[in-house]
Specification:
By secondary structure, the protein is mainly alpha-helical. It is 78% helix and 2% strand. Helix 5 runs antiparallel to helix 8. The longest helix has 31 residues.
Length: 289
């Protein structure tokens, strides 16, 4: 039983990082109906920014801030260079294929410029585990829980209580009505990409000390992110957060009890079960219960 609870705690630390990535995807889907296939690659580039800046000798704290800013800027550029024109087509297939092409382009460039060798970044918290009786959470994992939960709460407060957040929410609820009252859907979506990029950057600085960073990391994160969003109820932020925790725990249990290579498989097995039993997702289930 002790080992089981330990694996659950490890999974919670991982799930909190996944939650930030998934919440960003859910926000893009809710506001602009944009399924950004390149979202994981933006997180991957944020991870490389962290590793490169730390390797250059800068303090981890400043490197983390820079990595988050880099991810936000890349997301903003992606919107203005690619997604702004794809969204105008109002065709979800066009947006999806275009974002997939962007993902492949980013990963190919990363392979060409940075090579495929995984790079590790040691967190300053690596030697600061959280000890709770017989249970131990490594520094990066308990830090992920604290930061992941805090950032999601801050996002909810931002969307609910700030002028920009309410504009973003209004566009997500009714684009045409928001435009009638003077809200620019284009500006709101651009700012949504910035927010999603910030979330991807924070996810990167939490995940890289645990998983390392490598070019294929982007597509792996994206696939898990979409699985979480689908199970959580597509555009539901609470649903995405809850399912990210479940995915992290499932992955940790699969690695701990079955085989280290089956972590990703557990995620998609869970997705299949959800699609069979509750294809509308957790948010719809909660709303009807």
């Amino acid at each position: 039983m002790i080992e089981f609870i330990q694996q659950v705690l490890n999974g919670v630390g991982l799930g909190a990082s996944y939650a930030l990535l998934a919440v960003g995807l859910a926000l893009l889907l809710g506001v602009g109906r944009v399924g950004n296939f390149a979202h994981g690659d933006i997180a991957m580039l944020g991870g490389y920014a962290l590793q490169i800046i730390v390797a250059a000798g800068f303090a981890y704290y400043y490197a983390s801030i820079a990595a988050v800013v880099v991810a936000a800027i890349i997301s903003w550029i992606a919107y203005h260079v690619v997604f702004r024109y794809l969204v105008l087509s109002r065709n979800t297939n066009v947006v999806f294929v275009g974002s997939m092409a962007l993902s492949v382009a980013i990963e190919s460039a990363a392979l060409l410029l940075l090579d495929a060798t995984p790079r590790q970044v040691t967190s300053p918290l690596a030697g600061s585990p959280l000890i709770m009786g017989p249970f131990v959470m490594s520094g990066p994992r308990w830090f992920s829980v604290v930061v992941g939960g805090g950032v999601v709460l801050a996002l909810v407060a931002f969307l609910r209580y700030t002028d920009l957040g309410r504009k973003i929410t209004a566009v997500g609820e009714n684009r045409e009505a928001a435009q009638v009252i003077g809200i620019s859907p284009e500006h709101a979506l651009a700012m949504t990409f910035v927010v999603a990029g910030l979330l991807a950057g924070v996810a990167a600085i939490l995940l890289v000390p645990i998983l390392g960073v490598f070019p294929a990391m982007g597509i792996r994160l994206m696939l898990k992110g979409f699985a979480i969003v689908i199970m959580g109820g597509m555009s539901s932020i609470p649903g995405a957060f809850a399912m990210a925790m479940l995915v992290g725990i499932s992955e940790s249990l699969a690695v701990g009890y079955v085989a280290s290579d089956l972590g990703d498989g557990a995620v998609f097995l869970l997705l299949i079960v959800f699609l069979l039993l509750r294809p509308t997702g957790l948010a719809r289930l909660t709303a009807q219960s």
